[in-house]
Amino acid sequence: MKRKLSYNRINRILDNLAEILFRGKRLDNNEWAEGCLLIDYVSGQYFIHTNGNSVNESNKIGEEGCLKFFAFEVDPETVCQYAGIRTYKNGRKIFVGDIIKVNDFWTGVVVWEFNDTSFEVEPIDNMEAVECLGVVVNGNKVEVIGNIFDNPELLEVGE
Prior knowledge:
By secondary structure, this protein is mainly beta. It contains two helices and 13 strands; from the N terminus they run αββββββββββββαβ. It is globular and about 50 Å long.
């Protein structure tokens, strides 16, 4: 007997999926844009479509519906993916390229490790070993103190 998925069960499954989100620095004003990443492989341009910037144009003649949206062009060098984890302190999203402080003791940069296929924290001061981001955040006081683009001075190792 085939079992049907109920509407509530489908919603619970969807709620547990990781949010896929990107951010990048806008070319027009150097501000961060956060949302869906769009890449034009012909021109090489990168865009971020921010949430809430869509208009449903379903009144077009002969069409079922059309979604019109706009996106901000961003610097491809600044595009970072959301790691799917937030800080416990204030719920701030943690992205690749963020600089985090752990237990007021050590700092590290969030990176994507291709070989391990995981988000990791690479210590700045080499006092700790590279750790999986999920392990670092779990049970520790973690705070995003900046990122590698806006705060490169935080990458300097103290004497």
